[in-house]
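2024-03-11 09:14:02 DEBUG pipeline.ingest accepted 1 chain
2024-03-11 09:14:02 DEBUG pipeline.ingest length=277
2024-03-11 09:14:03 DEBUG pipeline.predict start
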Amino acid sequence: MRKADLSVIGKKTAPVVYDYTWKDVVLYALGVGATAQELPFVYEGAPRGLKALPSFCVVPAMRAFPRVGDDVDLSNFLHGEHTIHLYQPMASEGRVIVVGEVAHIYDKGKAAVYHIRVSGRTEAGTHLFDCNWVNFYVGAGGFGGDPGPKATPLNPPEGVKPDYVVSQKVAENQAVLYRLNGDYNPLHLDPAFAKGGGFDRPILHGLCTYGFAVRALVNEVLGGEAARFRSFKARFSSVVYPGDTLTTKAWNAGGQYLVQVETGRGVVLSNGVAEMA
C-alpha cells in the first residue's frame, strides 16, 4: 500500500540559485513551439529586445521542486494541474532565487493530492513568480486527512464560439527539444519506457502543452506583449503525442479568459483560466 509522507508538509527547500542567459530563454521558446516568425521570443537581436515567455518561469521552478517523501512511487505520482502567477516580467537573462515547499497534502480517498509551490525572487528579494503543482499520488489516499477544497469547474460557455482559436502542429521531435529545459523523464523519449507506463509511444511533456497554450495566448490575445500576462491555471486532461495538432481556444469572460486545448482526440487541457493586465 502506498503512503503519503505527511512530514514533508511545510518544509521548504534550501534556496536554489538559477542563473540563465538569453540562450535558455530561446531554448524554452523553441521547446514550446516558437518559430522564426516570433523574433521577440527567439532572437537576441530582436528590434525591441528578446522577451521571455511567461511560462519560462517553470524552468527555474523545477530546480527547486521539493522532496515529496523517501518511498514515493513516481510512476503513480501524476501531475494533474498547474498554475503560474507572474508578479514581474522575467528578464531575458539574469539570476533567480527559487524556494519550493509542499504546501498541503489532501486526502481524496483513492489518491493523496499534493499542492506544491515554488516561488522565485530576484537577489534583491523582489517577488517574480509562483509556480503551483497539483500532483495526484494514486493509491496513497484514505489516511483520514482533510479532503481539501472542491475543484470549481471552469467550462467554456456552451454553444458560444471562442474569441480566439490558434492551431499548431507539434513537431515530431518536440519532446526531444523540450526535455533540454530540465525535464529528463524517459517517458517522453524512450519507447520501451513509455510502453512500460502503458503508452504506445512516448508522450509530450504536460508542461510543454501548457507552454504551447501560454504562447498562443501571448501572441493572439496580447499581440506579443508578454509583460501583460499575469496568471494561467489549467488541468491536464489527456495525453498529447508528438505530431499532434494542438488547438488552443479562448473565451473572453470579462477580465479573464477561459481556455481549452484540444487535439483530434479531444480535450487535453481543461479548466483553463488566464488573467492579463
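2024-03-11 09:14:41 DEBUG pipeline.report The chain has a mean pLDDT of 96.
2024-03-11 09:14:41 DEBUG pipeline.predict end
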